[in-house]
Amino acid sequence: MRILLIEDDTVLGAAVRDQIAGDGQSVDWVTRLDAAGDAMHGTSYDLVLLDLMLPDGRGIGFLKTLRARGDVTPVIILTALDQISDRIEGLNAGADDYLVKPFDLAELSARIGSVARRYSGNPNPIISHGALDIDIASRSIHRDGKPVQLTAREWALFDAFLSRPGQLLSKAQLEEKLYAFGSEIESNTIEVHVSRLRKKLGAPVIETERGMGYRLGTP
């Protein structure tokens, strides 16, 4: 997944960013709502982590604006506001979850996984796909009962296919999943990573529509 983190506390923001990256997700971190708006205008995110008290306004207003224009991107609120009334306001504004600071980073990872599975149609964190048994929560894969190790980039791409079964994904859409990892994306990056995934998981796992993109193969 590609996640947008909106958090002005630099210590907490860095910790959350590192936790998300360590989970194999890509993350863009901004500290203001205007920067968040610009980021969402130019990029398709799978999830937003939203602080409520930011230098240029309240996150609730930002969330309401998103929902008013029909944006259904999942949003998890991260805030020090711990009153029941605050939680109700956040959820009524369209948040998918509400996590009160200070929180355990492992719990944040679990909440992210839960919301992602809800939106991908996979409420069960363990799914089977042909010879593969995939534990989405722990990001582990077994092929014919044997563990398979994926790099963070490989998992980010494979997760994109898992979350959109049967859907054709363009090269540009897949490249978006890798931008936040920092290193330059070359013209053949997607082809190289798809080839590695096929070697590790089996050639049929990813199908190619020549000149158009890739999709999760039929098990």
From TrEMBL:
Its main location: cytoplasm. GO terms for cellular component: cytosol; protein-DNA complex. The modification 4-aspartylphosphate is found at D51. It is found in: Cytoplasm. Keywords: Cytoplasm, DNA-binding, Phosphoprotein, Transcription, Transcription regulation, Two-component regulatory system. The keyword Ribosomal protein does not apply. GO terms for biological process: regulation of DNA-templated transcription. This is Transcriptional regulator.
